[in-house]
Amino acid sequence: MLLNKKYPPIILVSSFIILGIFILIFIYYKNTPVSNEDLNNLLFIKIKNKSIKSIVSKKSTDYSNHGATYVVYGRDSLPTHTGWDEKIEIGDSIIKPKGSLKITIKNSKKIYILDYEEQAEEILTTTF
User: What distance in Å separates the CA atoms of residue 99 and residue 44, rounded to the nearest whole number?
Assistant: First the structure.
């Protein structure tokens, strides 16, 4: 019935392909986090899995990623909140135990404990 002259096979096949593409797009966007809380939770999971005892070697701004700020240490980096820029200097010690969202910034003049959860309203990049 479907494969008669009224509906050539190429039209049926292309219709099923288009329908399949729409279903895959729907599934992708249904499972992609869209709220600020979901995006920050992805970031928090990545940060919690890191253990850091190092020295800040560079502060960086990624203008291709909406001006996201990073602190670079060793061969790795962490995204930072905009309010942390004046607290973190090149040469400071950076310490973070695995499983924590608090980083400690130390030098001979100051000690700051910076908490990612306190700044939850600002969405940070998860690509670091």
Answer: 9
